[in-house]
Amino acid sequence: MTETVRLTVAQAIVRWLAAQYIEIDGVETRICGGGFGIFGHGNVPCLGEAIYPMRDVLPLYRGQNEQGMGFAAAGYAKYHLRRRFMFCTASAGPGTANLLTAAALAHANRLPMLMLCGDTFITRLPDPVLQQLEHFGNPTLGVNDAFKAVSRFWDRITHPAQILQSLPAALATMLDPADCGPAFLGLPQDVQGWAHDYPFSFFDKRVHRIRRQAPDIAEVAEAAALLTAAARPVIIAGGGVQYSGAVAELTAFAETHDIPVVETIAGRANLTNDHPLNVGPVGVTGSDSANAIAERADLVFAVGTRLQDFTTGSWTAFAHDAKLLHLNVCRHDAAKHLATTVVGDAKLGLTAITEGLGDHRAPAAWAEDARAERTKWDAYVADNVKPGNRPNSYAQAIGTVNALCDTADRVVAAAGGLPAEVTANWRTLKPGTVDVEFGFSCMGYEIAGAWGARIAQMEQEADQDTIVFCGDGSYLLMNSDVYSSVLTEKKLIILVLDNGGFAVINKLQNNTGQASFNNLIADTPTATHQVGVDFEAHAVAMGAIAETVSNPGELGEAFTRAKAADRTTVLVMKVDPYEGWTQQGHTWWEVGTAQVSDDEGVRKGHADWESTRHKQRQGV
């Protein structure tokens, strides 16, 4: 007879999570690093009761905002290369609804995150309950159903026995290289506390390993034939290279076959800045060097990227007759734009293809051309980040920090103008140290995501720092995890670069022929009382150290003090909203412009935008 233990659903979930391990480089580590939680009536009576006795095993970080908790979980998972994750628990109703944006970010970026969220009573005896949304024709429909669109795995637990199947299925999804993403479990308030006799064996320690899918032999042969025939091949290296742990294989592949490498935003730190085959970032927020090489390539070999429009320049970055070869563990990504596909793990795939290529090397003149382009771009960046070359700019702040940071410091940016400026101007000192969240391009990720990354970083490299580049708009949107970082002693260095509003969208507004409107505070008609925000005082009020500086020279001195500080430090500097932008390195980007307008500037903007559409590939 099977031995059992009687537990509530909540207790069983927590105990099961604590028993799951992952093998990383021969070391077994608990796969769930803990959780982020805000308690309410929908999760504190039962799930809170279950977590409390396990708090040393699965530490629970108290969030200030559920959306920020989700961002922190994403930052944690990204730092650990999707091999570890955190859970997020929120109460029924608005607490859970606040996680929607974070779940979408994790979904877009293919990041594991487990959401354990309160739900309405399955018996419906007390209906309608506090925070319940009533749908008159469908009593089963509620807020939690909204997560179906932003979850890779979704379930509502309506009986205690269901978690015997649901939990392993959720974890399998989160660990799958091809289907990785957030998992959502709706936990009705009554079901959380219902007891069941669970098999003891369900809670046995289990060690998991990330699956490595070997590529098909025929696909490898076809890839090798394409690369052998190419006169001007280029590798586009994405974030999947890092998730696969294939940076060494990518580097060896490029060096063995003398093929230039360009990087996506997610793959921004695959190669160090000084590697001779690193041509730079490609695409809308890229570099002249990478875009010039991508445009001339006759074979584009994409490795571990979903080929987002910022990478492809809305599919104008490549020649119409260029062939596309794609190595990706996800079939959906590998088959995009009629590419020749190699479906499989990046590490195994690169190894297999290089064996098929033997000692083949691309024409030497092609790599020399790439190096010449990169030399010109390096000169541009060196001038672009130089203090005093123009009014205070994002690029100057980036260059200042880049020159003073340690090689293993982690840089975090998201949404607005800073991701583009970091992508173009940051010079990578060590692989895997840049987190530019442009998968969902989500304002507010910066500080919260960095907090999660810092938790992960202090599990491994406590002597290094996590550095946040944040605009004033994103800071105002979500800053409460400055306080979280202070409470938990997870030091961050946060640069708040204040350009007076949503300056990058103002730039787009102007570039499409429109007048500035509702983006910069100064151009907001309803902002009838123009007043600046004292970001320094605000940060100090949350327990951080803070300084306001007036120029990049002072920023460098303050950054050095921040490195030596014992807690989160916020450095504030005003930057110019008009003249501070990186002017080079951009491909075309498709945005919807007005075909008809009474404004001559808008009509001209539309015509100018459409004038280069002829470069756009039409799916081939």
Automatic annotation (TrEMBL):
Residues 599-620 are annotated as: Disordered. Residues 36-131 form the Thiamine pyrophosphate enzyme N-terminal TPP-binding domain. Residues 220-352 form the Thiamine pyrophosphate enzyme central domain. The keyword Plastid does not apply. Belongs to the TPP enzyme family. InterPro entries: DHS-like_NAD/FAD-binding_dom (IPR029035), Myo_inos_IolD (IPR030817), THDP-binding (IPR029061), Thiamin_PyroP_enz_cen_dom (IPR012000), Thiamin_PyroP_enz_TPP-bd_dom (IPR012001), TPP_enz (IPR045229), TPP_enzyme_TPP-bd (IPR011766). Residues 423-572 form the Thiamine pyrophosphate enzyme TPP-binding domain. The lineage of its organism: Bacteria, Pseudomonadati, Pseudomonadota, Alphaproteobacteria, Rhodobacterales. This is 3D-(3,5/4)-trihydroxycyclohexane-1,2-dione acylhydrolase (Decyclizing). Residues 600-613 have a biased composition (Basic and acidic residues). Keywords: Thiamine pyrophosphate.
